[in-house]
Amino acid sequence: MEKKFNLQDRAAGGSWGLKHTELESMSMMQCDTPVYDDFVEDFIKTYSTEDVKPIVRLARRFCDTWPIPKREGDNSNRRPASPSNTLRVGVMDSSFNPPHYCHGAYMECLGIMKLMPAAGARGQKAWEEARVLGIDAYLLLLGSENADKKRTGSGLEQRMRMVDMLATTVVSDMTTDTWHLWKNRDQFDATNLHNMAIGMNNTPRFVDKCRAVTDVVHREWARHMGPDVEPPRVLSYFAMGWDTLIRFFDPKYYKEYPQELDAFFANGGRIAYSRRQGFPDAEVNAFFERGEIASYLEYIFELKLPKRVKHISSSSVRLAVRDSTQGVRDIPPRILEFVNNYQLYRQNPSDLSKVHPT
Questions:
Q1: Are 182 and 192 in contact (CB under 8 A)?
Q2: Half-sphere exposure (CA, 13 Å, Cβ side) for 185?
Q3: Burial bucket for residue 93 (CB in 10 Å: 0-12, 13-18, 19+)
Q4: Which of 14, 102, 108, 250 could pair with 309 as two cysteines, CB 3.0-4.6 Å apart?
Q5: At what angle do helices 101-112 and 156-172 cross, to 10 degrees?
Q6: By C-alpha distance, which of 23, 5, 47 is closest to 195?
Q7: What residues are paired with 235 via a beta bridge?
Q8: Contact 273, 303 (CB under 8 A)
Q9: 278 beta partners
């Protein structure tokens, strides 16, 4: 049976209340995924007008204490223990058209890898500063707006369901011989990857996304800890590819440049990027040696995506689905099943009104 999203549940917190052990036993069939039609429709109606401030709304929490990590073995409903005065959130913000294994690998890299600040590109001994970030919570965000892309291929409701499937794969797929970066269950548990949430945001600009992520973390904090407990400082690590990093520093995306860049980093925004496959070191170094970027290097970290996922992009997956090539292996089976059932990416991508399940 499909689970219809209840707007009253959303107003009260929107959690489906699934524990980690329950997620592990979920069927891989896409029909077990909640339906988000009402959630998406309500979000678009309420938050897609120009006079509404940037906002993040959660559709599902895979850990009922999100964003506060739940202690191992604690399945009680008592108030979670307060973490340190800084809460680190790994954020994957994308159009997810469709989600794929590389999206999931970004999240796992944030939790597992020792990351080096981009300051190393300027000759500093930054490798000595490489460290595991210590991410406390993770957030997959589907954007209702994009600064450059028109909406094609699949509807937002369909993408929201596929984002749920991706999160379920990251959180509950414990098969070690697949695409995962972690090597055993203990390493997985140390990443806090089980502390995942998914949702939507209504702004294409990262400076606004950063504020909205901080706001939703503080709202959730108050819900768990009470309004009298001081909220933590939030550091939001936005995972992105090299092309997105280039656009991030492009003045055309800002009303006030570089003041809004300063605000992004001052408000806890951080960048964790991965360079394009085969991209030469000389061009990477030349980019970071630009004078207008120098003051931000300590807030930028490089992710080393594994080769087995580095080639994957949503566009390559869409082409593989259309042409029925081996590239369809680059998405989790539950998402591929959903794509096949709804015949996504096989017809005119701008005609979403004719997309029906088979």
A1: no
A2: 7
A3: buried
A4: 102
A5: 50
A6: 23
A7: 88
A8: yes
A9: none
CA 45 to chain centre: 23
Amino acid at 27: S
Q: Name the token pair of 91.
A: 């954020």
Tell me if 204 sits within 8 A of 72, measured CB to CB.
no
Which segments of the chain have a pLDDT < 70?
1-32, 71-84, 119-129, 146-153, 176-178, 325-327, 347-358
In this structure, what token pair is assigned to residue 134? 């210590």
Q: Which residues contact 113 (CB under 8 A, 6 or more apart)?
A: 132, 181, 303, 304
* SS3 label, residue 339: helix
Number of H helices, E strands in the chain: 13, 9
Angle, in degrees to the nearest 10, between helices 37-47 and 156-172: 120
Token pair for residue 187?
């390493």
Residue whose entry in the numeric block shows the structure tokens 């800084």: 86
Exposed/middle/buried for 73, CB within 10 Å: 0-12, 13-18, 19+? exposed
User: Model-level pTM?
Assistant: 0.84
Q: Which two tokens stand for residue 303?
A: 């992710």
